[in-house]
Amino acid sequence: MAALTLVVALASVVTAVTAALTWHRRAQTPAAVPLTASLVSVSVWAAAVVLLNSGQRPAVLDALVHVQYLGITGAVAANRLFAHTVTGRRLTARRVLVLCVEPLLVQLALLADPATRLFYATVEHTGDPVVRHTTLGPLFWAHALYSYAVIAASAAVVVRQRRYASGTLRRQLSTVLLAIAAPAVVNVVTVALPADVLSVDPTPAVFAVTGLLFAFSVLHQDLLHLLPVARGLVVDTLGDAVVVVDEQDRVVDLNPAARALLELLGCAPGTTGAPLGAVVGTALAAAVGAGEGEEVVQLGAVSLDVRVRRIHDPRGNALGRVAVLRDITAQRGQQRALEEANAQLRQHVETIEQLRADLAEEASRDPLTGLRNRRRFVDDLTERLRAAAGAGRPLALVLLDVDHFKAVNDTHGHAVGDAVLVAVAAALREHARAEDVVRYGGEEFVVVLPGLDAAAAAERAEELRADCARLRVAGSEVRVTISAGVASCPEHGTTPDDLLLAADRALYAAKAGGRDQVALAT
């Protein structure tokens, strides 16, 4: 059995070296960590088997059994984790903890075994050199069944993933499956044989083959660079069309979504290896062959969003391009509908704003004379006074009142009174801007005169009075006269209240002086 012991020792070395190689690749994929743990466990297992057959003292042999099963249970758990990650699944802390339960229970069973004899029914140390002979107990068989179930689950995961893989991915998974299955088969045969047939467990030796297979996958098939291998399945199930072309513009691969899209466009997807233009058509080939970028291609009624990226190998050499095609016909239709709805909404908003402005303007106008009313006059006058002060210019206002207006209403009726107010408003508008004339209330009017001082404003007020004095209303039966008070800023005040009060006092003085005249505030 010396040759078999040597092979097992070789297995320990091979798996240890492979573990070091995979550990250096751990930054590239999460699968490297459980793979390294599996190889280290096998290396520990094999080393323990070699030492168990090296003639150690009984106490040392009993201690080595703990090390042996640490390697055995660790290899089973780590292989399950490796199969889980190698098929593209996420490794969680909960899964790791669950798989650590059985190795812990085995160690506890071995510690209690001298008293319980549930793991090994009998243990004898005989011969020279000393060899440990055992018969198997119920806990051993429970451990064995559990281990085989975990290994079967690992193989099932890989087999299921292999069904959807092709090319390099399929070869990678085949290698992993063989590496998992081979030691399990040998171990089943070993356990089934009588104890005196083999004095050395050959299972770790088979793990030498496993180590070589994993080394082959890592170094030759570039397993850890290409993981997770589930990427093929992911691409196949993508809703977006994926087209891969090489540097010679030959189609390397099409996913099912790409084939369905090309058939919809009336193209013949054909087989891989055909020229790009023959597979996707001239217009789409121009977009895909233009290099990296994104653009929208219109093919009849179909709008395609085409995104192209270059593919490079680890050394930076260009391998080709991958194009992702997305049918955005519906989205563009929705976008156009949304733009039209937004345009209509903007028109409605503009109409509403115009109506609001018209209503605001109408609310600020006197319905009889068409002049602005007093509603916003004080606010507007405040702004004008602020602007005039900022520019260093004067501003004056004239407060006018129709003389004997009550008598006109009482004698000739309100219709004639309204006609008098309309005529006065028209006369005032002829000598001032429309926005500068305000019906202040009843028979009173205000005329704002920007840029005029008190003297100039008094002259303009006299012109207004003279024009109104020439008015004749109701068939020339009613003669109109007005009295006016003039105040200016800053001489008579700098606020609307001060100016209006000064102009009102001047107006009162004009009426007290006999009406039909202009008075300047003092």
Main features:
single chain, 522 residues, alpha+beta, five-stranded antiparallel β-sheet, five-stranded mixed β-sheet, 18 helices, 14 strands, 16% strand, elongated
What does this structure look like?
By secondary structure, the protein is an alpha+beta fold. Helix content is 58%, strand content 16%. The strands form 4 sheets. Strands 4-3-7-6-5 form a 5-stranded antiparallel β-sheet, with helices on both faces. Strands 9-10-8-13-14 form a 5-stranded mixed β-sheet, with helices on both faces. A two-stranded antiparallel ribbon has the order 1-2. A hairpin with a 4-residue loop joins strand 1 (120-126) and strand 2. It is elongated, with a radius of gyration of 51 Å. It starts with a helix and ends with a strand. Mean pLDDT is 81; it is low at 225-230.
TL;DR?
The protein is α+β, with helices and mostly antiparallel strands and 522 residues long. Helix content is 58%, strand content 16%.
